[in-house]
Automatic annotation (TrEMBL):
InterPro entries per record: Depp_CoAkinase, P-loop_NTPase
Ranges annotated as spanning the membrane: 205-228
Any one GO BP annotation for this protein: coenzyme A biosynthetic process
Keywords: ATP-binding, Membrane, Nucleotide-binding, Transmembrane, Transmembrane helix
SUPFAM superfamilies linked: P-loop containing nucleoside triphosphate hydrolases
One GO MF term: ATP binding
Entry protein name: Dephospho-CoA kinase domain-containing protein
Species classification: Eukaryota, Metazoa, Chordata, Craniata, Vertebrata
Family, as annotated: Belongs to the CoaE family.
């Protein structure tokens, strides 16, 4: 059995959730990085304890959960705090992603889609992906969707879009582009044909990766991530 990873990304209001919905409908394995990022900081987790130790109990809600808005404000204004938070959460997120990838490998899936909003910005993970898919839409459509969807003013919408890497920039790096500027049906057809192509491609010998994992155990995650590029080149 061979298996490979597909990175999926987009921009604000580019329509990534539409694409994910179609992929799930097709029975694809989709791992959502945002969901995992929320799960690894739940109360009683290792990351939760470290965050409280570093940022103080005042960033907790009454429920004991982390106040994401408060934490967001801190890390937005202080880059060194953002790096600290990343150092706490990233290893936990990667460990959980790896566990889920393994689960799908064992279940015999041909490929796994990793839905990572900042895939092209962080760029660290792209080398583990066989393909990278960008959900694109033209800037005018993106703005009008954002205004409609979130009830923003034109200026607010422009500021949100400007805070991200332009989709036209990301386009150059993606191996596949799904153009979501048209209607839902056109996007759906593009996802179906992409899925058919991915199902047909038999590239990676992931059995070697599984063997490597069995040898090092999940504890050897750092070691594994060093080896990973060799396994999948």
């Amino acid at each position: 059995s061979t298996m490979f990873l597909v990175g999926l990304s987009g921009g604000i209001a580019s329509g990534k959730s539409t694409v994910v919905a179609v992929l799930r409908e097709l029975g694809c394995a989709v791992i959502d990085a945002d969901v995992i990022a929320r799960e690894v900081v739940q109360p009683h987790s290792k990351a939760h304890r470290q965050i409280v130790r570093c940022f103080g109990p005042e960033i907790l809600l009454e429920t004991g959960e982390i106040n994401r808005a408060a934490l967001g404000t801190i890390i937005f204004s202080q880059p060194e705090k953002r790096q600290l938070l990343n150092r706490i959460t990233h290893p936990e997120i990667q460990k959980e992603m790896l566990k889920q990838i393994l689960k799908y490998f064992v279940l015999g899936y041909r490929y796994v889609v990793l839905d990572i909003p900042l895939l092209f910005e962080t760029n660290r993970l792209t080398r583990f992906m066989k393909y990278t898919v960008l959900v694109y839409c033209d800037p005018r459509t993106q703005l009008s969707r954002l205004v409609r969807r979130d009830g923003l003013s034109q200026e607010e919408a422009e500021a949100r879009v400007a805070s991200q890497l332009p989709l036209d920039e990301k386009r150059k790096w993606a191996t596949h582009v799904l153009d979501n500027s048209g209607g839902r049906e056109s996007t759906r057809q593009q996802v179906l044909s992409l899925h058919a192509r991915l199902e047909d491609s038999l590239h990676f010998l992931w059995a070697r990766l599984a063997l490597g994992l069995a040898l090092v155990g999940l504890g050897g995650l750092g070691y594994l991530l060093l080896l990973l590029p060799r396994f999948i080149s």
